[in-house]
Amino acid sequence: MSQTLSRRKFLVTSLGAAAGSALLPARSPGSAFLQQVASANPSDSPATTIQATTRTLDINGKAAKVLGLLQPDGAQGMNSVVGQGFRLTLDNKLSVPTAIHWHGLHVPIGMDGVPFITQPPIKPGETFVYEFTVKNSGTHMYHSHHNAADQVTRGLMGAFIVDPVDMSKEPQVTAEYILVLNDAGIGMSLNARSFPATQPILAAKGDRIRIRYMNEGLQIHPMHLHGMYQTVIAKDGANLPLPYLADTICVAPGERYDVLVDCEEPGAWAFHCHILTHAESNMGMYGMVTALVIK
Ligand SMILES: [Cu+2]
Fold this sequence. Notes:
single chain; mainly beta; Immunoglobulin-like; 21 strands; 5% helix; disordered N terminus; binds copper (II) ion
């Protein structure tokens, strides 16, 4: 697995990304967390812990008190491979109840993380153990399912990327990026940053890149890339039998789309949500705006 991961480059992706310039890869191949969940049998996996907690981040130059689902190494966002066991303890350090839902992952009902339906809310100071075998590959998420409009959009969320066992049918790409869309809590943002603080995607002419969109906000966002098509290859983690071309992809709350972009024409291409109030004001561009820079 580490070989597979190490030949990829990742852009930071979750709220963890907003912590100053110390960018945390969503799929860090060397993280202790990944090693700990690498057992095939959940009950054999050493338990690890995620803390639901508050923290202060620098968001666009201002100190902002946000929430986080933090792994022992401080990362937010995780990955796995189909068939792997998964076991972790959620430690609720917040002053309010919470729970984690594994959005897109096919888990046993008792592990689905819906308070009052599949489990009691995890109260402040309490813990809960989530344990399952990872069944389906693709671009998924994990997030709070309690008072979610507040908790998720303020940071109780992360990307959960699952590779298939057989990687031979996965597209060969020069780099891979995750874009977490958000519009509430921390505001209009891509990976918890609002333009001009968003991180541009840097590519060389001839590169083929993969972008994994996921919308953790409350509104739909048509993500428009100038100058070239995006090839949509997967929806909600499932590979499409017939990939299609689009330059604007509507990502609704909860949706994930995987796209490939062939970087042929050099330039700094605008890349933004096309609900214009999410991207421009009389002061210029802001919010859900970044750029694809092809050299
Ligand atoms: Cu938008």
